[in-house]
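Annotators were shown the component list below and the corresponding predicted structure, then asked to write short factual statements about the assembly.
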Amino acid sequence: DTEVTQTPKHLVMGMTNKKSLKCEQHMGHRAMYWYKQKAKKPPELMFVYSYEKLSINESVPSRFSPECPNSSLLNLHLHALQPEDSALYLCASSLGRMEIQQFFGPGTRLTVL
Amino acid sequence: GENVEQHPSTLSVQEGDSAVIKCTYSDSASNYFPWYKQELGKGPQLIIDIRSNVGEKKDQRIAVTLNKTAKHFSLHITETQPEDSAVYFCAAHSLGNDMRFGAGTRLTVKP
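Structure shown to annotators:
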């Protein structure tokens, strides 16, 4: 298995909803990442997990809450989002934090109404 | 921190022609330079990468060159095909830091 999968593909939520994005990889990678990508912009790093521990949080608002239950899974819990949070949310993984070749999933297209 | 500039922002070529996209970086400690292709509605796909101890790398129709002195690297696509149409991102990475992406180049290959 050489890919990163993400669910759901699309998500529409209201500002009072709670939802979660899921990411999974079975390549034995020990570093996993969440990126946010707005239209016509490059991906922006949000969080980095290394060996299931949060190592970087790029000043992301607390309405985004990451979780890494095990080395294959990464979640992003969403609560009280704003319309400007609408974007493509990308998950990526790499062999390790210092192994820098990152592989991206297809993303979840999030729309906040 | 690292700053990556990418040019051009849009590029249109005729099928069969070559396409070149250029990036410059600011951090002389950067040592890894990947290129990603992103098609509409999909995540970025790693297409080629180069490390700082190598000046050039080629994979079929795609090549990347790196000039460490000038701090720039380029993506070369030869014999372009319509399926090469996508947004291409360069990135730079240094040990202990995270990848910084360029702003992207929208490549259109006209049949």
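Statements collected:
1. Residues 16 and 41 of chain B are 25 Å apart (CA to CA).
2. The interface with chain A takes residues 32, 34, 36, 41-46, 49, 89, 93, 95, 98-99, 101-104 of chain B (CB under 8 Å).
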